[in-house]
Specification:
The chain is mostly helical and 84 residues long. The protein contains three helices and two strands.
């Protein structure tokens, strides 16, 4: 329980980096994400929900699949498993 909270706190700097990208860089580049929510929004939500390691892993998988040969469409962040 405490470790989970620590990992969520450690994810905050990464969330800030993504937020900076969303505000300062993304508006000036063409929209290219094939998913909804966008990869940057997905990354923030995954880090907030799952913390640094699992959220980071989910974000990395999502970003790597966002290409012409990958998937597309609605792909929400999975819910956190309450049984653990």
């Amino acid at each position: 329980m405490i470790i989970s909270k620590i990992l969520k706190i450690l994810a905050i700097p990464l969330i800030w980096i993504v937020r900076f990208y969303q505000v300062a860089i993304s508006p000036y580049t063409p929209a290219s994400c094939r998913y909804s929510p966008t990869c940057s929004h997905y990354t923030v939500e995954a880090l907030q929900k799952h913390g640094l390691f699992k959220g980071g892993w989910l974000a990395a998988k999502r970003i790597l699949s966002c290409n012409p040969w990958g998937g597309s469409g609605y792909d929400p962040v999975p819910e956190k498993n309450k049984n653990k």
